């Protein structure tokens, strides 16, 4: 599913009218009918609806929704919250249809606020930027304090559609019915919570009307259809020979979790490289994994035998490595000597920020998997800037250094070197524990070795990780007690549920 900026959505509408001959008032009718249909399905007929109608397309949709619900016997009070001169074009056409249907517009009184149970916010659309002006500043506050179930049409009024906006006041929706395609603000940390439960409603715009879309929201069906199946002739060599490097003396668990996740995700052969003192206990935990010792200084990895890189199909490094200076030489060696896909995570990202010139020269597939703070450190931006602009900052870093970026968060944004982006939204707050990222690293290493295209590999790996958490917390676990090791064991349920022959 395409993710669009406000200007791209406007362009989509324009092309639907100019190139496909769709009249604007017909598009608005289709949109309102589709939205009213979802409202009708979600709420029982005894609810009392208060529809707040603004200007522009959002207000026009509001008129259609109010009319359709009234036609079908729902209790609806419709209030136009802007002066008559603000209603024009297709919205004016549908206001006239509404009134000619015998329906009245009400005044917004305290009585209307008190007797409504659901407020439908059709006041402002995707073009809003910056602070609200009267009367919308007061109206938004009133909606949020109303005690009614708040339903926003396309976008909560006052919320920016795109990333980057810092100052705004918006409806805090319980439900948002998004028109045709999600907007960027659904996926940015400081704005996504305003949408509540978000659902995209197809209003019948012609497909592929946005030129060269760079952003997609991955759906379950995308994974089911695109996940590579195992041939009957598969053997351990064909399923990928991976190398994981990490685990300082005081942090052996990170490597253990990553290695276990890698083999559970389906790697054919996994080797874990760590300081020699970690190997006896780790090997006893993971009999399926091969181990090799590294050079060590002050309890951290200080060097890696480059011969160990030969014959591998993928390498992941940084988990539990520690931030002492000897680790930096290890990351530099891997950047220069590894000729297969290389994934750098955790402490490896700390060292990488001192090696960006080396990173830029690397020609093979490179993947970085930062969370917001790590992305800020890599780019020199503040964490606030990364939260507000995750799409553009990820894209710039990926293009500048020729790498794949997995920016982890509630909505993980995966970016290819040419700028194409996939958003993966699986998972829940149960993953907010130390070790979850290590598990993801192991899964992603396996995916990189088994998929033809790295971007799809990374998106599918994030799906497996997130869906495991979802399935577990829907059953025997909760978001409070879920452990990263549980997520590893839960992968089998994800494969059984979603990845079928």
Automatic annotation (TrEMBL):
Belongs to the NnrD/CARKD family. In the C-terminal section; belongs to the NnrD/CARKD family. This is Bifunctional NAD(P)H-hydrate repair enzyme. It comes from Salimicrobium jeotgali. One of its GO terms (molecular function) is ADP-dependent NAD(P)H-hydrate dehydratase activity. It comes from the Bacteria. Residues 219-498 form the YjeF C-terminal domain. The gene is nnrE. Keywords: ATP-binding, Isomerase, Lyase, Metal-binding, Multifunctional enzyme, NAD, NADP, Nucleotide-binding, Potassium. Residues 9-211 form the YjeF N-terminal domain. CDD domains: YXKO-related. K(+) binds at residues 58, 121, 157. Bifunctional enzyme that catalyzes the epimerization of the S- and R-forms of NAD(P)HX and the dehydration of the S-form of NAD(P)HX at the expense of ADP, which is converted to AMP. This allows the repair of both epimers of NAD(P)HX, a damaged form of NAD(P)H that is a result of enzymatic or heat-dependent hydration. AMP binds at residues 408-412, 437. InterPro entries: Carbohydrate_kinase_pred_CS, CARKD, Nnr, Ribokinase-like, YjeF_N_dom, YjeF_N_dom_sf. (6S)-NADPHX binds at residues 57-61, 125-131, 154, 254, 320, 371, 438.
